[in-house]
Amino acid sequence: MFASCRQIVGQSQLDLELPAPATVADLMARLTAEYPSLARYGPHLMLAVNAEYVRPDHPLHDGDEVALIPPVSGGAR
Q1: Range of the domain at 62
Q2: Looking only at Cα atoms, what is the longest distance across the chain?
Q3: pLDDT tens over the chain, length 77 residues
Q4: Cβ pair 26, 18 in contact under 8 A
Q5: Model pTM above 0.85
Q6: Is 77 within a domain?
Q7: In angstroms, rounded to a whole number, what is the distance separating the alpha carbons of residues 39 and 31?
């Protein structure tokens, strides 16, 4: 979990098991059920599996590491 996702969940890492076959969308459904504030990011949340950006339909396998990266802003013109 990064940035505000970590604040919402209250920790930087979770160990979860999902019934197979599972996708990143299945994981997000579970996480938003447990942590409803994550839903506010909707399609703006970046998802990575094993350090590669993926789409919600990406299949998950035993041992995968999933990162939730919220949108960021900042900088100056």
Answers
A1: 3-69
A2: 47
A3: 899 999 999 999 999 999 999 999 999 999 999 999 999 998 899 999 999 999 999 999 999 999 999 987 655 66
A4: yes
A5: yes
A6: no
A7: 9
